## 1
Amino acid sequence: MPATPDPAASSPRAAATDLFRAVFRQHAAGVAVITARGDSGPVGFTATSLASVSAEPPLLSFNTRTASSSWAVLSGAAHIGVHILGEHQQEMAATFARSGADRFGPPTVWRDGPEGVPVLDGVPAWLVCRVHARVPAGDHRLVIAEVVGGDPAGAGRPLLYHQGRFTALRE
């Protein structure tokens, strides 16, 4: 016997957006902070869209809203920093996600890294990448970048984002 059609399946676009958000709240994602250097100083934001793209050459991707305060710098940056956050860095993740926050003021500790990219201290791992492409994707841009350096030797377990909040792995 055929299933009864779901009236929500043919509802307007807003329902599709709500469905999309509801489904992705079920998807646990690692948390990263993306940084870049602008003429007026460093910029950065929290990203949960970080993904490996290719091992040869080493490429990664992330998404950013074009309406974000960081986009003006990211749209022209030749190099960016990618920082994998640890479970002990929930406050840092929240700071870099908050609009209008002083992201590079205390308690954030950072330094100028390779290619002038701001590098955050105390993270489990970080990379410096050369921007390879910026692909329009709705109200975002998909940024593809090639790894040129970094350090995977920091301590800590990864920070996750799930159900709209930061969390840690459970044993």
## 2
Amino acid sequence: MDLFFTIVGAFAIFCCTWTYLKSKGKPASPPGPRGLPIVGIIPFLRPDLHSYFAELARTYGPVVKLQLGSKLGILVTSPSAARQVLKDQDIVFANRDVPTTVKVLSGGRDIVWNPYGPEWRMLRKVCVIKMLSNATLDKTYELRRREVRQTVRFLYSQTGSPVNVGEQMFSTVLNVVTNMLWGGSVEGEARASLGAEFRQGISEITELLGVPNISDFFPVLAPLDLQGILKRMKKPMDKLNAIFENIIEQRLKKEKESGSSSAMEFKDFVQFLLQLKDEEDSKTPLTMDHIKDLLMDMVVGGSDTSSNSIEFTMAEIINNPEVMLKAQQELDEVVGKDNLVEEYHIHKLSYLLAIFKESLRLHPVLPLLVPHCPTEPCTVGGYDIPKGSRVFINAWAIHRDPSIWENPLEFNPSRFLNSQWDFSGSDFSYFPFGSGRRNCAGIAMAERMVLYLVATLLHSFDWKVPQSNKLDLSEKFGIVLKLKNSLIAIPTPRLSGQTLYE
């Protein structure tokens, strides 16, 4: 018996020694709030996640551990830690932790959620180098110009009356995006009815994507769809997919009637993508499913993000009359009051660009970016980051850090005049479109669309809020950051003649 206890004791000492030696030198787990058994901190989450996460970072530091049910979240809230994720270990963090609802949207195989690899690189190349390059965007300028002019005519008809700027900008941007996608394929009343269908479908999809889903916190329960979110998502998704298939079918029919698609004059992105699909020189070919996923990315992602950016920018401008005056003075010098804004004017409007940058600093479109997911255990900020964790990067909090920015809560576009900050994501104090290989693929298009629309709104009209309204810049957290209350403002024409509004 004594021998037995001696052996057991020796084995216990060996195990403890082995565990100690194995853990010796291993980075510690990040600090974080203590949660409840099984559910972790889920019951304590607040709707305004971006500001709640900023509070946690002030308490626990720049790298924080969050137990979200059976999922482990990692919160990053400093430029140095963000650099380690987005640059130093870019490939390790290049994948996504795909939410259950997104798997319904695209199977997680679109450009936003696709795993890093040959298929993702092919889609990225199509988007950034081919479909959204400056050369291709130049070819679709007339499509954007037509919609912007139509919006100006509508706003002119509302002179002196309150206008829901956010609602109008969503409608305009959606029309611009769909115009670029199939503006040369679908015309007349059919295009107008498509716009209405898309507005309804996108509204349903974005609302459902913003609902906290038990299936994400406890993947083992996902097949049960306890909240019915997947079932509700299927209806608008089927509707949008049917529209895409119909548009593609129309384009293919046109090409068949007109002969070779390559011989046709460039009209829209649908034609462009179908031409790429027919090219046989790629090891990872573009399929019809890829085309539908890319169209879905641009419609759902492009319309909501750009329109929200315009609404925030206009709200900040109206709330700062001296900024509006300075921007309009620049527009009058570059464009003139007897002329209309064109896209080629944009690169000459340095103060307007500074306004846009400052608006994105205070109100980044994706305040927590799109969550990253490490493919292997790694270290960030001296802490151990497990494989498969969901990594949130709080760009919103970094953009408002008083140790980086002077008077960070003040809207001051002048801080971006002659500054080193741009949209490339190379400076981890300012990266509104993300950084690294998974940064936003639509930066060039977003910059053109937002600046062109904001320039046109400011050049063509003066803006003020109704006397009974108080301008509220409160934010509402969601998939994308929105104004909590829509911007209601009154347009007053400021150009030299009525013909400029026709």
